[in-house]
What does this fold into?
Amino acid sequence: MKVFEVFKTYGAFRTDRREFLRNSGRLLIGFQLLPLAGAALDGEAIPHPVAGNGRTIDSWLQFDSEGILTVITGKMELGQGIRTALMQMAAEELDMPMDRVRIIIADTSQTQDERYTAGSGSIEGSGNSIRQAAAEARRHLLKLAADRLNAVPEKLTVENGVVRYGTKTIAYRDLVKGQKLEMEVTGNAPLKKHSEYKLVGKAVGRTDIALMAAAKPYYIQDMRLPGMVHARVLRPPVYGAKLLSVPREEVLKLPGVSQLVVNGSFVAVVAADEFQCIKAVRLLREKAKWESPALSPLPAALYEDILQKGAGTETVEEKSDVVKNLSEASATLEAVYKRPYHMHGSIGPSCAIAEWKDGQLTIWSHSQGVYPLRKTISNLLNLPEAKIRITGVPGSGCYGHNGADDVAGDAALLAMQAPGKPVRVQWMREDEHQWEPYGSAMVLRLKGGLDGDGRVSAWQTEIWSDTHSTRPGGNAGHLLAARDLEKPFNLKSGGFSGGSHRNSVPLYDFNSQKIILHNYNGPLRTSALRSLGAYANIFALESFMDELAHKAGKDPVAFRLSHLKDPRARAVIELLIEKGGWRKGEKELVGEGFAFAQYKNNAAYCAVKAEILIDPSAKTYKVTKLSSAIDAGQTINSTGVISQTSGGMIQAASWTIMEEVRYDQNGIVSTSWDKYPILRFGDVPHTEVFLIDRPELEPMGAGEAAQGPTAAAIANAIFHATGSRLREIPLLPEKIDWKKFS
Amino acid sequence: MAEIIDIKVNGERHRVEAEADMPLLYLLRNKLELNGPKYGCGMEQCGSCMVLLNGKAMPSCVIPGSAAAVYEVVTLDGLARDGKLSVVQKAFVDEQSAQCGYCMNGMIMSATALLAENPKPSDAEIRQALNRVLCRCGTHTRIINAVKKAATEMNGAKSAGKP
It folds into this structure.
């Protein structure tokens, strides 16, 4: 098998023994690419079906007969480095070297059902399970070792997977002997003291980066299975369009085309060669006829529509009589903030491979939730879940719910039409741009009151938003293809509004506050985009804090601190000011803006400072620098936290200063990178991240903490430099009032 | 219609049966089973598919393989020598210059071409050379660090070699 042979060549990169061990540690990454990963590669029993029930050690950890530890997580590698972080946590508890640890990720035949890899929850969820299982395994192994070495467990030490008592030693390998550790994880096994940590908190390198740099097959897009055929789906021109006709004969005459699948308005081509497949879809696109409903409301009327049609109003939080307190305030302020639809914009369009063989459907997918996807595919095909296996293989970064699940649905439908052949479906750029579910447009109306001392005496936020989660969780209607079938599945929208009001409740010590959510059902398909509603909620909240500080005549950072008792919140703000400086000597043409939030009000604390440089003659500005201080509790991998924070700031800066999904009545207009530009290297700001490690505390999710604060920090910097308060994202330079500079 | 395309890739001559209009990217990935160049947009807008054509970093997703055959093609797969990663590849690993890593091909190929032409690039020159390649994870800071590190190492090696 091709994939297998390629993986065997890793030895070619062997430079020394350590390098070799690191390489062999990587083999399992590729191993998962093999269908029904079994005992073939190194003679080890890989659990199939899933071991344990989540309550036993072997649900999370297994030793092979060579003493190699395999960590088993239901979470998915999305580029956030979760694989390395989870291996670190297990290796730390067991005092194992990293090069003796491997990991299996999201696979319905090998790992626990850990739902979605989302919400910055993998370290808190899977990480804690793995840590507890590792502690339990250590306790068990030390008991066994104590018997063998005639000692009490308390007198034993462990180094590099070898237990020592005086001069006597015994390796984990010789204690486990390849047996599964089927004892229960009680949760009361002692955890290692953080003062003794050797790996956790350190910048342990990700081993998978060497694979990427060496062009080894790593991504789902790189999988080549024997007999694999290529498929492309012709998506409709616009949401809800109905197929009238396709040039069937003409397409089937094209070289290499083996099948044209038409089911209702779901149209796909299967061909032996990928490029032949692409050409067939080009012809189809040109000649297929559709009945297309007009998309509305159009962008010019969108925000008004949101305000008018928001329904199903919920009170998220209410503290004291806000209306009364506002009316009694010395000064009041009201402002409306808006954000448009934003794209995930994965650089590699979504891809999946599915194979229907011997009554078993196998799907390779970069989905964020292999188990929920399996349930959804089961619904789509009316096939029992036991007959479906979904194996997670990394794709391009997704930043939330992109096309990953949809393309898996496409592949599943097509595999059923081509039994015995792995069918690879690769979305084209325009498919991803047009059909991914976007981050919802939102409107926020904020009202605030100040007392005689210039302190906030009342606060009200009204949110209007479409849903931030339409992830497939069992209902096939959440997959694009399912809605186009002759017997269509329908999307049941609504339900989860938690994403819409995320981070809308101020963390500040306000005595009187009220948060109201109006749910909106908008024109474009929406779902989870990194940080969900927190992005716009924090943009509004932290812009409005700046506006109130200005109204009160106070420094915006001092104003925040005067309303903030939480010591960890204060610490990130104070650290950022100390390290990054704050408005020291007003510099002409330079603006500095500040913002802060604790993600979800229960995860990482993050403060962001933005610096911009304006060019009044060219009527433009540039974000020159973004600095952050972050406290995610116990740091597992400092490289990971810093990369996620720095990357989060750059991505959020791009959303904030330039991005907006464009559409007209005929459909999505933003179909390529020139029509949906994102930040390029030349304009990317410098970034710096200051990390507060609190090894004595629980680790907290960090991957989405910077999104909201970055948006507000940029808006606040623009105000500082220009006096223009921009409340509508994208913060385009033409929205700034440049007249005062002329 | 398929024809035989005679093309030199990573120092080796290949005779590939492919349609004349097949973009180089598909020829490299599907006919030669290389993994370096990635599909990203098919419109020369994102740089995921960068290769070296006679040493110059160019997207491979539009130019037909038949037209690219006049060049010597080098892909990320061909940068390692005798099993050792190139200085640029190694710098990207050392600096952990990837999150999802999908853009890494374009970044390494562009940086390789830059450093061959300009051994001591300024920050602005690095940014300009990598401007064609999109990164959505926001790994730019680490990527610049990797290119600088590679430049330093290459220059160090050169001056060390001087008598």
In short: The first strand of chain A starts at residue 61 and ends at 63. Chain A touches chain B through 65 residues (CB under 8 Å).
